[in-house]
Design a protein that fits this description.
Blueprint (H helix, E strand, L loop, with lengths): L1 H35 L17 H7 L2 H34 L4 H8 L1 H4 L2 H11 L6 H8 L14 H26 L4 H8 L4 H29 L3 H6 L11 H11 L3 H24 L1 H4 L6
Helix pairs in contact: 2-13, 3-8, 3-10, 8-10, 10-13, 12-13
C-alpha cells in the first residue's frame, strides 16, 4: 500500500519544484499586478489607496493610450507579416540548396544572437542623418540626406525595418525545420498528377507546414508586443509619439512618472489583448489545413 501511494504521488513530487517556481515568478507577480491596477500606487508613497476602476477609466480616456494601441497594432502586424513572408521565402531557398546550406544558415542566424539593445544602437548609428551608412546609399542614388529617426513619417518604418532584420531568421529557422519534416511522397504524387509549382506550394507545402506556421506566428507575435529595448535605443518613443507602443508607455507612466497603478492597468489591458489575439489565431489553425485537391 505504501509503495502504491509513492507511485501515485511520485509524479506530483517531481512537479512540485516547478509548480512552486511557477507560483513564485509568474502567478504571484500577475496577481500583484492586477491588485496594483486598482490602486493609486507609487513606490515613494506611504499610502496606496484603492481607487477601483479609476485607472482603467483614465486609460480609455487617454489619447496617448489610443495612439500607443494604434502604433502597436501597425508595428506588430507589419513586422510579423513581413518577417513571415521573407522568412518563408528564405526557408524555401535554403531547403533547396545542397552545398553550403549550413554556412548560409549560420550567417543568417547571426542577427538573433545579438541583443536588441545592440541592434537598436547599431541601426541608430547606421540611420544617422550626418554619417549613417543609409544616407551614403541615398546620396549614391542622387537623393538628399534623410533624418530617418527624427522624421515622423519614417521613424516607425525604420523601427519595423530593424525588427525585420533581427527576427526574420527566427521565422526562417522554424519554417525550415517544418520543410525538412515534409515527406517526399506528397510531392511525388503532385508531380505525377501534373501539378504546377504554385499548385504544389498551395496544396502540398502550405497544408503540411500549417502547424509550424502557426507556431512561428504565435511566438513572434507574442514577442513583437513586448518590444522595448529597440525603441529605447533608437527613438525613445518619438518623434511626437509615433513610435510610442504600449510597452513604451508602461515604462513611461510606471517608471518615469512613478504611477505604477496606471502602468499596471495598461499591462492588464495589454495582456487581455495578447491573449485574445492568440486565442483567435489558435482557433483559426484549421484555416491553414487545406487538403490536396484530387
Amino acid at each position: 500500500m505504501k509503495n502504491l501511494r509513492l507511485q501515485r504521488g511520485g509524479p506530483y513530487l517531481v512537479m512540485l519544484p516547478g509548480l512552486l517556481l511557477l507560483a513564485l515568478f509568474s502567478i504571484y507577480p500577475f496577481l500583484f499586478l492586477v491588485k496594483v491596477s486598482f490602486q493609486k500606487y507609487s513606490p515613494v508613497g506611504e499610502n496606496n489607496p484603492y481607487v477601483g476602476l479609476k485607472n482603467y477609466i483614465q486609460l480609455f480616456q487617454d489619447h496617448n493610450f489610443w495612439n500607443a494601441l494604434k502604433v502597436t497594432g501597425i508595428f506588430v502586424t507589419s513586422s510579423v507579416v513581413l518577417e513571415f513572408v521573407i522568412g518563408l521565402g528564405l526557408a524555401i531557398i535554403l531547403n533547396r540548396i545542397g552545398i553550403g546550406q549550413k554556412w548560409f544558415q549560420s550567417l543568417m542566424l547571426l542577427p538573433i544572437a545579438m541583443a536588441p539593445t545592440v541592434v537598436g544602437l547599431m541601426f541608430r548609428f547606421m540611420m544617422n542623418d550626418q554619417y549613417g551608412v543609409f544616407n551614403y546609399f541615398v546620396e549614391m542614388l542622387g537623393l538628399d540626406r534623410t533624418a530617418w529617426l527624427s522624421n515622423p513619417h519614417l521613424a516607425l518604418p525604420a523601427l519595423i525595418l530593424t525588427d525585420i532584420w533581427q527576427w526574420t531568421p527566427f521565422m526562417m529557422i522554424i519554417l525550415l525545420a517544418g520543410l525538412k519534416g515534409i515527406p517526399d511522397e506528397p510531392y511525388e504524387a503532385a508531380r505525377i498528377d501534373g501539378a504546377s509549382a504554385w499548385q504544389t506550394f498551395r496544396y502540398v507545402t502550405i497544408p503540411q507546414l500549417s502547424r509550424m506556421i502557426v507556431i512561428a506566428l504565435l511566438l513572434r507575435t507574442i514577442d513583437a508586443f513586448r518590444i522595448y529595448d529597440t525603441i529605447y535605443m533608437m527613438t525613445k518613443g518619438g518623434p511626437i509619439n509615433v513610435t510610442s507602443t504600449l510597452s513604451w508607455i508602461v515604462y513611461d507612466k510606471g517608471f518615469k512618472f512613478l504611477d505604477f497603478g496606471y502602468g499596471a492597468a495598461i499591462c492588464v489591458v495589454l495582456l487581455i489583448l495578447v491573449v485574445s489575439l492568440l486565442t483567435f489565431l489558435l482557433n483559426k489553425i484549421d484555416v491553414f489545413e487545406v487538403k490536396v485537391k484530387p
